[in-house]
Amino acid sequence: DGGITQSPKYLFRKEGQNVTLSCEQNLNHDAMYWYRQDPGQGLRLIYYSQIVNDFQKGDIAEGYSVSREKKESFPLTVTSAQKNPTAFYLCASSGPDRLSYEQYFGPGTRLTVT
Amino acid sequence: EDQVTQSPEALRLQEGESSSLNCSYTVSGLRGLFWYRQDPGKGPEFLFTLYSAGEEKEKERLKATLTKKESFLHITAPKPEDSATYLCAVPHSSNTGKLIFGQGTTLQVKP
Predict the structure, then answer these.
(1) Most buried of A22, A82, A88, B61 (most Cβ within 10 A)?
(2) Cα separation of A66 and A50, whole Å?
(3) Minimum mean pLDDT among A23-32, A97-106, B77-86: which range?
(4) Does residue B69 register a pLDDT over 90?
(5) In B, what residues contact A, Cβ < 8 A?
(6) Please, which contacts does A45-50 make with residues 24 or more away whose CB atoms are closer than 8 Å?
(7) Which helix (H) or strand (E) holds A78?
(8) What value does the mean pLDDT of chain B take?
């Protein structure tokens, strides 16, 4: 079955630690995205990548970093510089080319930092 | 500025009571309007894409329509399992693939 996987589903970290969230897709999509969802705030774009080895900042990139070394994978690192990291993180992809705007989402990772 | 506004924020219906959700958009050069359903603690599930004014799409009890300024998601005779948050989104006018999402409408259908 084709789809997007995110792991883990729940993640707990201590303040000051970096943490990496995994996102893998087997849809052969070129573009991948990371969103953050907070109650009452909707979906906010963190980073996106339209092709391998290239990515752009979204609306709230501060305190986050990404890499895109493979077409299938787009990991997100939440660094200690992110002031309020506790949130629900969603990965999405669209394709098969950059003219395809429909985005398909993974199941999400809920990060709790204490 | 590209913008998407959904109303109402929350909607409570009795089972079988039909209603509509609204999505108003402002974007230069519409490249599609997307509807998603999101259940609590899960990722959004794609429902429909509409491309041009007058277009309609249907899936079970849901029908999405599009005008030049807004889209409606009509829910006919809803059931409790239709309870979810419904999101709409449009591609950003920068043509970078980014989507602009509305805040969502949370629908609760009571038996």
Answers:
(1) A82
(2) 13
(3) A97-106
(4) yes
(5) 31-32, 34, 36, 41-46, 49, 87, 89, 91, 96-99, 101-104
(6) A45/B98, A45/B99, A46/A76, A46/A89, A47/A76, A48/B96, A48/B97, A48/B98, A49/A74, A50/A98, A50/B96, A50/B97
(7) strand A76-78
(8) 95
